[in-house]
Amino acid sequence: MREALRFLGALLLGLLLVGGTVGAGLFLLLQGEEGLARELLRVAQEKAFLLLFLGFLFALVLAALLHPLFLGYLAATRALGQEAEVLLANPGHRLRLRGPFELQALARLINRLAEEKEALEKEVEARIAEAKALLEREREVLGALIAHLPQGVVLANPKGQVLLYNPPARGLLGEGLGAGKSLFGLLDRGLLAHALALPEERFLAQGPTGPLRLQAVPLRGEAGFLLLLERPKEEGGLQGEALHALKDKMAGLKALVEVLEGEAPGALAPLLRQARATAEALSRLVEALKAPARAEEVRAEDLLPLLAEALEREAGLSPGFSLKEGAEGLLVQADTYALARGLAATLREEEEVFLEGERQGNLFRLTLSFPHPAPKPHPLLQEAVEAGLGSLWREGSRLHLLLPAREAPSTPLPKGPPPRAEVVDPAFLQVPEALEEAPLEGLLYTAFDLETTGLDPGKDAIVALGAVHVLGRKVLYQETFEALVDPGRPIPQAATEVHGLTWEMLKGKPKLEEVLPAFKAFLEDTVLLAHNGAFDLAFLRKVGVGEPPLVDTLLLAHLLFPDLKDHRLEALAERFGVPILGRHTALGDALMTAEVFARMVPLLKERGYATLGAVLAACQRLPLARLKY
């Protein structure tokens, strides 16, 4: 529409110039020729309709002759500008010499500038590579070291987003673990916060793939924290309840022997003395037995502030606390996380409480004082105390907890973790709360593709899924997902010719419902990225996969290059210098889509589309966005 108005304006200006020139010529010719002027005026009045018709015909013929030249010149100019923008992302691209001579000369000049830009960028890249060589070697050593550790290791920023992890951590936390994803979706947020307050301790937790033992080590400053993970080891020995029962039975046996010694005949005295000696020996053996530890140990001076912080976080209660003299240096045996949860559940309705810790022999006594009768302990608190082989009771306005304790070793505990080498810049993942305002280079994407038995989402089935994570403009080749699926039906020859998969190749592969949980976990906390994504989403919606924001490189191509005709994935890859490998395989197309998108980001920013919301809004206005499958 805008081009048509520009053409009409140019045509009107041309007609005004022609009419003005003709009028000026007649005026000069008729100077001093009054008779001729009157005669011409009379003829013009008599032939006015014919003259208007001839003028209209002249304008129409002129418009027909100039229209293709004018619009073609505009289109060629716009196409040259749009293709020249590709040089921002791919300096190796060269413009085709087409259109008018002037535009061809301009294209030659742009190609020369692109050659110089490419040479300069290569020189800069070489210098940067030299500067980073030492750092890269250190990172490789660190990565190799972490990769071969038997423990799972995860490095996260202060928001819990993953910066680095090793294969054992992936095995412990499952497909949901990935660079840029949040740990809070995989592990209990409260437990992680609690573990960070006790970096020397290890805690039992329930992970996505089963129970595990974790240790959270905060890094200096605001760099985040390190998470150490491992499977809990099988504990030997007697359970606490069984040990208490055995001690009780031994005490009963000794009492029975004492009673029999006073009432039995003298002939049985030797046997009773032997029985008494045996009972005492067994009693000593039982006393030497210890139940397996079901709790961690924490210093008494750390326990009270830790519980106070947990109560403020979990129950909105700010208690006072004090530790009596003599209790310093005690190691208190307690599952501190379970104890904090139990106290929070017990005190949820309270407004005031005071915590006091004191030593009582080899035990630690924690007293909670209230301005009214003490509340009834919550079952969670009862369970946490009993799990640590402790006891609790109410006494008027006080609630007493008696916990096992021992003297702390004389060697001081380390004050904090040693300095670590920086591996990933944590600021790279600082994403605003509103997803629409998030910068394109600050988001985690999942580029994905499907292969199917046909083009009808209502009738056809998925036979392959492929995906890869993209962090900003970096394709994470180490984080890919690929699965072949048994569709349970023959595959039409037309579909096999596209992706090369036959039913014989897929028989015995997992069903789609077996693959979907891991695929959903891979997509979680990411923005979807696809080429012609409306087709793929139609199949995913049918199997219950949600529809988070989708960035479609097909729409982005129409947004960036509206006057270029070819927007196929292969054409975009060739335009941006992306190798075309594995075409029409799910993972191959996903990788190609990821690389094309990474090169589109600078062009989008140049056009003013710097945020995810701006890109999605611009794509929604395109006619192609209304296409439904």
TrEMBL record:
This is DNA polymerase III subunit epsilon. It comes from Thermus brockianus. It comes from the Bacteria. InterPro entries: DnaQ, Ribonucl_H, RNaseH-like_sf, RNaseH_sf. The lineage of its organism: Bacteria, Thermotogati, Deinococcota, Deinococci, Thermales. The chain crosses the membrane at residues 47-71. Residues 103-141 form a coiled coil. SMART domains: EXOIII. The keyword Membrane applies. Keywords: Coiled coil, Membrane, Transmembrane, Transmembrane helix. Residues 444-606 form the Exonuclease domain.
